[in-house]
Amino acid sequence: MNEIPVIQRVIAILWPSFITAGIATIIFTTAFDPEIIFVDYDISRLGVYTISFFLFWLLGAVTAISTCFFLKPCSVTNRSANNDKEKV
Amino acid sequence: MSNSDNKLKVEDEVEQSLYAKRQKIYPREVHGLFAWLRTSGVMALLGFYYITPWLQWDERQMLLFDLPARKFYIFGMVFWPQDFFYLTLILIVAALSLFFFTALAGRLWCGYACPQTVWTEAFLWIERKIEGSRPQQMKLDKAPWGHRKLRLKVTKHFVWVIFSLFTGITFVGYFSSIRELTTSFFQFSMGPWETFWIFFYGFATYGNAGWLREQVCMYMCPYARFQSAMIDMDTLVISYDEMRGNPRGARKKSIDPKEAGLGDCIDCTICVQVCPTGIDIRDGLQYECIGCAACIDACDDVMDKMGYEKGLIKYTTENTMMGKKTHLLRPRIILYACILAAVTVGTFYSIYTRMPLAMDVIRDRNTLYRETNDGLIENVYMLKIMNMTNEPHSYSLSVTGIENLNMLLDVVDIEVDGGEIIELPLRIQVDPDTLEQRSTKLNFNLIATDADDLYVNEAARLIGPVPLN
To answer: What is the rounded radius of gyration, in angstroms, for the C-alpha atoms of chain B?
Structure first.
C-alpha cells in the first residue's frame, strides 16, 4: 500500500467519482426536468444541475473512500496495534 | 538500539523516499516535423475551442448546449433531451476511433489532440516566454527568492490565471450564450451558477495544465493503463533502436564509432530532457509515454549534427525492430475501420433523416370509457405535440383503426411555435357495435399542413365494454 504516492491515492478517490458524477448528472438531467421536480423551490435549472453534480461527486467519493478503507489488508491492522504496544 | 527500532527507521526511510515530492519536469523546447505537427494541432484545436462559441448560425449561436432551456443547438438543428440516443452514438464513434488510431499508431490522441496535452503545451509556451529556456527555468527555481524571481513568478501565474479564466468563460459560453455572458462578466452582473462554473473550470485548467501536467496522464488517465490491449506487434510506436544505438557513449564527432566500439547513441540525454513525462525512451515502451514524438525530433537533430543517419528514435513496429515484416493493413485494422465507417455513416444518416416532430398520446387513466347520451363509447386522450424545428408549423390530425369514429378536438387548427410543446385534449367516440374486443388499437397520424416532410405516427388503445357476441 505504501508504494502508492499520495497524489495517486487522492486522485483514486476524487477522479473516478468525478467522472461517475458527470455521467450521473447527464442521465439525471436528461430523464428528469428539474423545473418540474423542484417546482416549489426558487432555484434555476442550472442551480439544480450544479448541486446534483456535487452531491453525486460526494456520494461517489464516499464510496471510493470506503472501498479504499476496506481494501486495506487485515494484517496491517494487527501489525500497527502490535507496533503501538512495542512503543509503550 | 533495538532491532525493531532499526526496522522502523528503515521503513521510515523507504516511506520518505516513496512519498518524496515529485520532481518538477522542465521539458526542453524542441523543433522538427513532429513538434510542428503538434504545434499546428494545438493552434487549430485551441482556435476551434475559443472561436466556435462566437460563430452564429441563423442568428443564433452555432454551438449552444442550452442547459437552462434543455435544448442543444448544433448547426441550425435543435436537439432535445429525447435525442439522448444521438449522444450515445457519438460516444460510440469516439471510442471506435480511439481503438482504430491506437491500433494503427499508438497514442496519437495523447500526443496531439488530448486537451491535457493541448493546454499543457499552451501553459509551457507561456512559461518559456516568461521564465526562459529549460536551464534558465531550473536556475530560477534553485535561486533564492528575490526581486527578479518574485516578479517572474507573479507574472507567470498572473498570465496563467487570466488565460484560465478566459478558458472558463469560453467553456461556460458553450452552455449559456457567450455574448450575454461576456457582457455581464464585465458588468459584474453574472448569475451565481455561471460565475461558479467559470471559476471552477478556470481553476481546473490552471491546476491541470499549470501544476499537475504529466501526473494527469500517469494517475488520472485510464487510457494509459489499458492501451496495451489495443497495441500489437504491428502497431507504430515510438522506439529507440537498441541494436543501432548501443553501446552508448560520448565521443568526438571525428571518431568513427565502430572503431571505438560504440553504437550511434552519444548519450547526450536530450531525448530525456525534451520528454514532457520525464521518461527515458531508451528503456523501451513505457506506460508514461504519451507518444508526443518530441524525442524523435530531438534525436534526429542530434544525429544530423553528428553526421549520422536519422531515425535512432522513430515510429516503428515491434515486428520491424525484430527484423520481421510489418503488416499495417491487418484484420484488426480493417475490422475497426469497417465498424467505425458503418457506425459513423449510420449516425449521420439518422441525424440527417431525423424527424423534428414528436407526439405522445396518453389515454386518460381516470376513466376507462364513458357512454354518451347517443349510446357511443367515448375515450379521452391527452396529446403532447413537440415541434423541434425553429419555425412555427400547423398540423392536421387523423385517427384510424375503427370505422366511423368521431374525433372531437377543442381547437380548429393545431399550431405549435418553433421549439415549443403543446398539450391537447382529444375525445374519440365510436359505435360500440364496431368494437370486436375490449381494447382496440388506434393509429394517430399527425402531418404538417405547411411542410410535406413533417409527419409522425403514434399508436394508442381505445377501451370499450366487452362485446356481447
So the answer is: 33
Sorted by where each begins, the domain ranges of chain A are 6-87
In this structure, the answer to whether residues B177 and B148 fall within a common structural domain is yes
Q: Do B310 and B271 fall within a single domain?
A: yes
- The H or E element spanning position B426 is strand B421-430
ipTM for the complex shown: 0.71
User: Do residues B292 and B401 share a domain?
Assistant: no
Q: What is the pLDDT of residue B8?
A: 53
Does the predicted model carry a pTM greater than 0.90?
no
Inform me whether the C-beta atom of residue B453 falls under 8 Å from chain A C-beta atoms.
no
* Cα(B231)–Cα(B218) distance, integer angstroms: 18
- CA pair distance B45, A14, nearest whole angstrom: 28
Express each pLDDT in A69-78 by its tens digit.
Answer: 888 877 777 7
Chain A residues lying within 8 Å of B176, measured CB to CB? 46
How far off is chain B from A15, nearest CA to CA, in Å? 7
B51 lies within 8 A of chain A by CB: no
For residues A53 and B226, give the distance between their C-alpha atoms in angstroms, rounded to a whole number.
27
CATH of the domain at B400: 2.60.40.10
Which residues constitute the domain of residue B332?
22-354
Binary contact (B196, A3; C-beta < 8 A): no
Q: How far is B239 from chain A (nearest CA, A)?
A: 27
Out of B310, B327, B354, pick the residue that ends a domain. B354
Based on the domain organization, do B296 and B313 belong to the same domain?
yes
Amino acid at site B268: C
- Chain B closest-CA separation from residue A69 CA (Å): 19
